Amino acid sequence: MLAYTLAEVLISMFVVALMLTSLYAGFSSGFSLVKLARENLRATQILVQKTEAVRIFRWSQVTNSAYLPTSFIDYYNPSGTNNGTYGALYQGSVSIAAPSGIPADYQDRMRAIIVTLFWTNSISGSSNVIVRSRQMQTYVARYGMQDYIYK
């Protein structure tokens, strides 16, 4: 017959509590990392979407700020805007400028397009706010762009 003393029971309960706390901390950390990876992936998708949109514009549209807005807002889950489950709010900006360091002959025939995104991990009143950002850059040339003919 085995008999356990009070000290053995308390130590075993402490070990079990420590193991359960570690288990739940591991789950929490894992879920946070997955959430961060998904937000980063969505940010990359938004950046690619904005830079690829330049491919359908003509040179006159690229150099006109009415066609390419300088700021925009997008969501982690755009379809969730109707019921409030849109997730992270991505705020972005688009800047178009002549790239530096190129010969003067090309200054009026080439543009650098930089898309920058910012979002936070804040969820309704969180005090530990971390601002995250991503940036993508591409170059376009006046005579290197497709000139689609509209009929």
In words, what does this structure look like?
- It is built from 2 helices and 4 strands.
- The chain has 151 residues and is α+β, with helices and mostly antiparallel strands.
- It has one domain.
- The radius of gyration is 26 Å and the shape is elongated.
- The N and C termini lie far apart (94 Å).
- The model has no long low-confidence stretch (mean pLDDT 85).
Summarize the structure.
The protein is of the alpha+beta class and 151 residues long. Helix content is 34%, strand content 24%.
Output the strand order for the largest sheet.
1-2-3-4
Uncertain runs are: none
Counting DSSP H or I runs of 4 or more residues, the number of helices is 2
Q: State the end-to-end distance.
A: 94 Å
Total of domains: 1
Work out the number of β strands.
4
Largest sheet: 4 strands, antiparallel
Radius of gyration: 26 Å
Secondary structure category: alpha+beta
Order of helices and strands: HHEEEE
Mean pLDDT: 85
* Strand percent estimate: 15-25%
Helix proportion range:
25-40%
Shape designation: elongated
What structural keywords apply?
elongated, single chain, about 150 residues, alpha+beta, 2 helices, four-stranded antiparallel sheet
Task: Describe the SSE topology.
Layout: H1 6-53, H2 59-62, E1 71-75, E2 89-97, E3 110-120, E4 131-141
